[in-house]
């Protein structure tokens, strides 16, 4: 007796259907009710449909891309920006104004906010708390500009006061959940008065503020608040370049010069701050003495503890997301430099933490890095448009061609799709694997730079945009891919190519 395909157990049918490419699998939805019910009921098949669509539709179907062009002539340059919940917000270097609009609106309305003083940084957590956090400093003297690899920021030569403002996006007013909508950072007499930079990060009810002082030793101060209660949780000093939440209870700091990543557990009282981090993760040794690392970070979505649920089969998890560190290596002569990206799994970093009963530990790159990280060459963004990662995905712009490259670090996607390089017609698809030889450029550049072999094994899937699509930056959030064309210095315009799934 012949066995019909649809007589097979659902488990076998799912295995068979999982071997199909995107378009064949989508066609099966209209073939048979039983097939459709199996596809609809399989989390893996739903994920596969969404994952492949995410990486191919933007490039294969240009009609799916919607363009928004805005005249922002009062913006001379974009100082800082954020994307969350389909809301894009940006602040200007000179005017000190902040603007935002919704990507989903057919005719976007630009909202504007003016603050007394200078806007140093901003952060959005729209799906989580409808929150806009803005860091400002009071301007007393003239401003000059310091250049960063990721973006330019003002050096406020007379800034004496740092404030954080918490707004609710729906009402465009003080956030109703914030007991103190404006928090003034407490001053300490021994600190210098010149604030050179301030950066902010959000995770659920907690917000981290890293302030750099131009005339103080140590130059960096980390403050962690419960922004809803207006309560200071941690306040300590060090030589740090970045601060990012790994979870609600853990923050990662990058040490200046050495680039070491230090993981600290967050205390509930400023007086309880421990004298050392729980773990110190070193970057690869440099071959010659005198060289140093400068580590920058990138914005990431989603914000929060990962407690948000989603009905979408392909959504971004905070717990399983990646962290992107932009690593600038300066050699002793200060004339030779190398810019690399380091992608690390957030969950894997947290798993390295020793238990509370164990002493603090220090690990070399060889001991912690290769299995959970990936080195990428060339830098992932322009000077003014640093990338925004989303979940386990990263989008970068080739600095030479302006083309977009999308990378998915989801291990299940990587394992399932890494062997499928050709579609049914025998033609190469937009989706390909990223092999170690293609991305481990560090080893090829290592002579004279690194004192040890650099290996990184975190796998990912890659899709490249057509050569005719040229961008200054690319941002990710939820189901949005946003290509940015920046001509502010030419005609005062910003152009956004939007694709939503």
Description:
This protein has 501 residues and is an alpha+beta fold. The protein folds into three domains: 5-59; 72-238, Methylamine Dehydrogenase, Chain H (7 Propeller), CATH 2.130.10; 288-501, no CATH class. The protein is built from eleven helices and 34 strands. The strands form nine sheets. Strands 6, 7, 10, 11 and 12 form a five-stranded antiparallel beta sheet that branches. Strands 17-18-19-20-25 form a five-stranded mixed beta sheet. The chain starts with 9 loop residues before the first helix and ends with a strand.
Features:
501 residues, alpha+beta, 3 domains, five-stranded mixed sheet, 39% strand, globular
> What value does the average pLDDT take?
78
Largest sheet: 5 strands, antiparallel
Would you tell me the structural class of the helices and strands?
alpha+beta
Strand content: 35-45%
Number of domains: 3
Low-confidence stretches: 140-157, 421-431
Number-wise, the strands total: 34
Gap from first CA to last CA: 45 Å
Helix % is 10-25%
Question: Helix segment count?
Answer: 11
